[in-house]
Amino acid sequence: MKTAPGPLAPVPFNIPQAFTTTLENGLKVVIFEDSRLPLISYRLAFMTGDADDPEEAVGLTSAMASMLTEGTENYSSLALAEKIERLGASLSASSSDDFTIIAASTLALYNSEILNLLAEVLFRPTFPVGELDLYRRNMIENLKFQRSQPNFLANEQTARLLYGEHPYSRVSPTASDIEKLTSEALSEFHRLQFVPNNAILVVVGDVECGTLLDEIRGHFDDWERGAVLKGKTVETVSRQDPILTIVDRPGSAQSNIVLANLAIRRDDPDYFAVLVMNQVLGAGASSRVFMNLREEKGYTYGAYTRVDSKKLAGDFEATAEVRTAVTGESLKEFFYELDRIRDEDVADAELADAKNFLTGVFPIRAETQEGLTNLIVSQELYGLPEDYLQTYRDNVAAVSAAEVRRVANKYIHPQKMAIVIVGDAGEILPQAKEYASEIEIFDTEGNSMDIDSYANDASAEASDFSGAWKLSLDFQGQKVPISLNIQQDGINVTGTLETILGNGKITDGSVRGNKISATANTDIQGQSVEFVINGTLSGDDITGTISAAIIPDSLPFAGSRSA
Amino acid sequence: MSHNFNLPPLDIEQYTLENGLRVVLNRDDAVPVVALAVYYDVGSRNEREGRTGFAHLFEHMMFQGSENVKKAEHFQYIMKAGGTMNGTTSSERTNYFETLPASELPLALWLESDRMRSLAVTQENLDNQREAVKEEKRLRYDNQPYGQIFDLIAEMIYKNFANAHSTIGSMEHLDDASVEDVQEFFRIYYAPNNAVLVLSGAFDPDTARQLIETYFADIPSQPLPPAIDVEEPREVAQTYKAWEDKLAPFPAFLIGWKIPKRRSPEFSALYLAGKLLYDGESSRLYQKLVKGEESVIQLFGFTDERRGPSSIYIGAIPKPEKDLSKIRDTIMTEIDDIAKHGPTADEMQKLHNQLINDMVRMRQSSQGRAQNIAEFALYDGDPTLINSEMETLLSITPDEIRSTVREYLDSENRSLLDVVPAGKG
């Protein structure tokens, strides 16, 4: 068959409504009967998280959550782990910016046992001093490791630029925050924070609703109400101009790029339009920025955009890890795509593809009990409508091209973005500085660096690169001769590149101080290949690198002017 | 109590097309989703010396287009239909799989049949994917701390070339490959009689059979691929190696043992012993090393399951200033304890519940079922093993675990790889 076959008749996917009730003490209970397999999942979620940490005790919520399973009145950390794993079950607790969640899952036949253990860690944790010491040491060790990861550094700066004094600006507590944690503080915080009128219990599984509700009441009816302690509300940063923040990580082979601005909260009515817009623009491997930066240009292994919507605020980000030599070119393509989705209506077919993907993968996400539980939990936690899951696909399908364009204009602001790049600052600065009016550079420990020490050559007068250059390229240990013919007009450069594989044309190269950067569009056996040339002049000698999508590493070259 | 656990058998229907394609249908209408898994009986074990990396290169080639599907269109077709997909390569097989809304079954079958029949093996695609593989090797192996240790230790454990060399292979070998080599590889290994097709999820079996007949029946079969020898002596090839890793921030080590093939009683006993040693917070080594001695940042272990001689690994990244040999002594002391006394009754109960839990959870996703069934169909010629495998594992006794650990996990016949950080600073 020559063409793709059409679909069979669609099979409806109906998610029934969950049973919902609220106990007298304010605990909301949501039960979803799912008898596909003999399994049960629990989520006990509190509507406060890391963002609600007291100002003088950052990291308290996440430490408290992690330590719940490290010792209780009736079990040591080891005894608890043995007890849970002997059931073949799991029980753990963790926190995020907005929520603190105790999660448990088990074979249905051990339902009562796991519910007992969930109540044990919820009501009777002891926060043993020895276990807390180990937690603190491991966290500090882990933090050191994190600072070697470019992603962590990029996220840290992005969060600071977007959220300022808002608690969402913290991607991790600092070592000194962690050192301040005490067992007493955890106990006190636990007593104040874990109140039923700030919590939701979601159960999905092979249960009979009425029987389970009786059992739940047995555990939770006596739990006493209390005051709900929320964190301070703080304004996010209102940015009027673009800013470029570089984290200097010398020797990096890649630049980690993040372009970001504030966007929407999770309960915003524009959520579905933004979801579809983001699918067209960059959420997946058939989205625009991926097709452009990876498939067409070969700058990167992957380029994406993402919408991170939380309870109090949210942001839009475009991200890619690109070869250092094409940092500037990558920014250019990103901004091209950000402008395009704002300026032009998305075509009908492209819109339909994006919506088909979002509606099609929805049942796949609900296939496992964990997947279904997560969908129900986020509906409850973000206060989304009761029929959110039932109407999800209709809401996606209803988004129009006009709405995509409207929300692109409303929530993507190319002229006011935070541009964060982690990599070799000396190489990045000349390529990226034209994109921002304000520039700052930090080292990997977060210390502010002097921009002038990176920018000297950029502000210097343009050196003269004109002439014919005989160069030797190092290709896997072999010396390959190439030549460059350069014509220079001020800082603008044109010319030709000659290689044994084929010749290329340079149309828009530039000179900054004693550095040249240029792209040669070269025809190799009928294929068009872009070679990116970066060189540094010293007298009549030049050294530098050439890179292209078809070669994995940039190749060093050296040579001199012949005429 | 756990022994009486009653899990209804999965609905398994199997048959073979005239061209030799083995088909397994597992109908389950719980969610309107259908999963497809195509397993080709070719992995790095089939590669000859001087020709490593071919099986994996081929996995890339399978996304480069075929007679009626243009380059990169495969994943676009799937995504536009609301599906997910991928492909992977191991020593044992190369697999391709997708999950889609149930109504898109014809699309999935058409896409898989088009590339089984008519893959576009051109010079341009080959050159292009050679470069993509190099990029992948750089990203996933060369540029990652500890990224190469699993390939290195396989070379230390196995003496037989078929087992010892890595799946990513040699970039020089890939450079040497001609279009003719690759076309020949496709003809031999990507034949319908060298593959298994599994469907799992919501579909009407009659419709599925008809569609499979329409799309796959006219793909010609090929002579059987050359037989391979994966036999190994009991001894490991090399017992010690120190490896300088430029990217590793901390020292680390990895210990590996050579053990009998998957689904042998010995392999199964060692798989269970491994779970007791390194799986979860109540495991023996987690409690000794992460908790008790507080000497390691990360502890890990796993079994590498193969149709021939297989292996089991335990590794650790110690905290700074900790004595690596003392950590290894602790590991060997625990292993010796199991070799002498066997697992405790509590540990056996834990194993039983975990096995049941794992099996039930695996059944939740149609893709999980499809892949598990495909392995039994391809490796063992019997997809219904998915319904009896849990009982087989549950029947292993503490004494079998004890004696197998004593026989195989000794401190002499094993490979030890030390990772030495060699970075600038």
Essential attributes:
heterodimer, A: 563 residues, alpha+beta, 8-stranded antiparallel beta barrel, 17 helices, 29% strand, globular, B: alpha+beta, 6-stranded mixed beta sheet, 5-stranded mixed beta sheet, 11 strands, 43% helix
Give a short overview:
The complex is a heterodimer of chains A (563) and B (425). With 563 residues, chain A is α+β, with helices and mostly antiparallel strands.
Characterization of the model:
The complex is a heterodimer of chains A (563) and B (425). Chain A is an alpha+beta fold. Chain A has helices at residues 60-67, 77-86, 111-123, 129-146, 150-163, 175-179, 183-193, 209-220, 271-283, 288-296, 327-343, 348-365, 369-381, 388-397, 401-411, 425-432, 452-459; strands at 19-22, 28-33, 39-46, 90-95, 100-107, 199-205, 243-248, 254-262, 300-309, 314-323, 418-423, 438-442, 448-449, 467-475, 478-489, 492-498, 503-512, 515-524, 527-538, 541-548, 551-561. In chain A, strand 16 and strand 17 form a beta hairpin. In chain A, helix 9 crosses helix 12 (348-365), helix 9 (271-283) crosses helix 15 (401-411) and helix 10 (288-296) packs antiparallel against helix 11. Chain A is globular, with a radius of gyration of 28 Å. The model of chain A has no long low-confidence stretch (mean pLDDT 91). With 425 residues, chain B is of the alpha+beta class. Chain B is globular. The mean pLDDT of chain B is 93. Chains A and B meet through helix 2, helix 4, helix 12 and strand 21 of A and helix 2, strand 5, helix 3, helix 4 and helix 9 of B.
